[in-house]
Amino acid sequence: MQVKSRHHLRSDEIGALETSLAEHLGIDLAGEAYERVEFVDTDREVVLVDGEPLVASFDGELFVTVRGANAHPPENHVVTVDAGAISFVSDGANVMRPGITDATEDIGPGDLVVVVEETHAKALAIGRAETDGSDMVGDSGMVVESLHHVGDDLYAFRV
Q1: Closest C-alpha among 60, 64, 53 to residue 156
Q2: Ordered domains of the chain (ranges, CATH)
C-alpha cells in the first residue's frame, strides 16, 4: 500500500469521527493526533490515531480496523465466533452461521461489524452483516462478508 498523501484532520472532523464511533461501537478513541492517509493503489483511506492505523474507510464509511478494535474493544456491532472459525476468519473467509456463538442485537443488514473470537474477545476481522444480529446464530448460511482481516494489507500497514 503506497501512500499518496497524508493530512491532519480538522477538529470538526475529529469530533464527528469520535462521536460516530462512540455512538455505533461504544468506544472512546481520545487520541491526541489524527491524520488521514490516502493510497495510490486503492480508494480506501486510513485514519492514524496517534500514529496507529485504528480507523479505515469501508465502502466510504469510517469504522475501526482490526487493530483499532483490539486497542479499543467495541461494545456494539460485535459478532463472536467459536475456536473452529478462527483460522478461516483470520484468512479472510466470510463468516458462516455455524461458527457464530453470539451477535449483538444492534446489528442490522448492511452494518459494519467487528468479528471477535470467543475466548479472549480479540478482533479477527471487520465485515458487513448480511442479516440482523438476532438471526446470525444458526445451522447454515453466510451472514458476514469479510472486508478486512488479520494478516491482510491493511492489517500489515505501518507508517
Answers
A1: 53
A2: 3-71 (3.10.450.120), 78-155 (2.30.130.10)
